[in-house]
Amino acid sequence: MNCKHVQELLPLYVSRDLEEKSAQLIQAHLQTCAACAASGDQYRETRRLLEEFATPMFSEAVYNGIRQNVLREIRQESLDSSNLPQFVASLFPRRLTWALAAALLVAVAFSAVYFIANRKGTQTNDQPPLAGGRNVVDRPESTPTKEQEEHQATNPRQQRAPAPGLAGGTHRFERRKNDATIKRAPSVAVKAPENTQLIAEAARNGNNPTNREIQPVRDSTETKKALRLEIQTKDPNIRIIWFSAQPTKQDSPNKFSKGI
Amino acid sequence: MRSREFAEVASGAYNMALALEIPLPVNALAQNQTLLARLIERAAAGDTAAFEQIMIHSQQKVMAMSWRMLGNEADARDASQEVFLRVYKYLKRFKQEQDFFAWLYQITVNVCRDIAKKRQRHSDRFMPLGVGDDESAFAEPVEEGNAEASLMQSQQRELIARALDTLPAKERASIVLRDVEGLATEEVARILKSSPTTVRSQISSARKKIKIYCEGYLRRKERALNEL
């Protein structure tokens, strides 16, 4: 064993932390090497100082102060735990508390989803079913356009057969051969879903019911004041649309609206 | 297991406990352990009087260990308070088959490590004993006619304390538990949650550094004396 190796192991040799075989080899080396022997003595001296490294003796007042501070903290914590929330929390282990909180959150979320889903279903069921599945639009009354007024003036009213599948009310209509005019229909208490696009069909040529002009989608603000009903019959070629405008002084008591 | 048992002198003169090192007879040790186990059981159930007895029983070890780890009385006091608060908090988790003082050392080492990290360590923080510390905190009796011995002892203590201060935290903990507290390598490894091989390596490194520091100190002192 050379000096370098011995110097590495000397710190453990002096405290007998080495295996017996290594300790014997080092002991044999120390007997022949003065430098390594001197290092060994220095390590022993250092270890002796460490073993005799006595802590200064603190007075009883220091220890007393430590104990009093600790007991005061403990009393304070026990007073804090007398609060109801902390008391409740202290009853349950931390993990159980978290598990209960997570379960409660999941239950609340599930209830909210179920409630919202049911509410949507209820809203859908409230709307009356119609032939062809079209929704009936309930539009507030609005001032009829100029074209409509002209058509009202020139075309006689006609009775129409009631549209099949129309829910509620008794509506009597007259089917016109040419331009159809429909009697004023009482407002139907149905509500259209928002942003429903309406296709307003008005015949430019009143004598040809097939000659239809599809007007662009009207802004909801334009039709705000007019009651307009649109019904799709079983026959896909037949669609009933009628308007109900505000009665004016010039109009006859039996106000009728333009229809197709 | 190599351990130092301190005889407690009656009449509550706890400051004299360190002055006497008497190996207690086996039955006395067993009685102490039974008493301690009972105190732990009662303290875990919330009995603060029993916990106070535990503190009295272990305050010197905790304070001494803290002082050796941190190097000054104020930090050692803060560390001791924190140690006992943690002991009270986690006493319910303590199992009776465990070694209470090994568990206590573990908590002390962790607390001292935390405090050392928090506070900035200055190179001049380690002042000579008696300067910066509250002098009334020490109750060291000075024997008549032995002032020189006391002075030498004080200087040696300062030397070792400064040498320990130069060590990294893990090496300092290993060397204090092994050489100062007198615990076996395996027990030190258990307290520090490390392996015996690692502990031996740390102890070896710590002893080399302390030896080099002491040699340098003595060389400087000798040079200063020669200049005079």
Q: Can you describe what's shown?
A:
The complex is a heterodimer of chains A (260) and B (228). Chain A is mostly helical and 260 residues long. Chain A is built from 7 helices and 6 strands. Chain A has a two-stranded antiparallel sheet with strand order 1-6. In chain A, helix 1 (3-13) runs parallel beside helix 3 (34-51). Chain A starts with a helix and ends with a strand. Residues 131-140, 158-182, 192-223 and 251-260 of chain A have low confidence and may be disordered. Chain B is an all-alpha fold. Chain B is built from 8 helices and no strands. In chain B, helix 2 crosses helix 3. Chains A and B meet through helix 1, helix 3 and helix 4 of A and helix 2, helix 3, helix 5, helix 6 and helix 8 of B.
Question: What attributes does this structure have?
Answer:
heterodimer; A: 260 residues; mainly alpha; two-stranded antiparallel ribbon; two-stranded antiparallel sheet; 7 helices; elongated; disordered C terminus; B: 228 residues
Q: Taking all residues together, what is the mean pLDDT of chain B? A: 78
Largest sheet features of chain A: 2 strands, antiparallel
Helix/strand class of chain B = mainly alpha
Shape of chain B: elongated
Helix content, binned percent of chain A: 40-55%
Written as H for each helix and E for each strand, in order along the chain, the element string of chain A is: HHHHHHHEEEEEE
Number of strands of chain A: 6
Number of strands of chain B: 0
Q: How many angstroms does the end-to-end distance of chain B come to?
A: 49 Å
Biggest sheet of chain B: strands, sense, closure?
Answer: none
% residues in beta strands of chain A: 5-15%
- The tally of helices of chain B reads 8
Unreliably modeled segments of chain A: 131-140, 158-182, 192-223, 251-260
Strand/helix succession of chain B: HHHHHHHH
* Side-by-side strand order of the widest sheet of chain A: 1-6
Instruction: Give the CA-based shape of chain A.
Output: elongated
Name the chain pair whose interface involves the most residues.
A-B, 35 and 51 residues
Query: How far apart are the termini of chain A?
Result: 117 Å
Rg estimate of chain B, integer Å: 19 Å
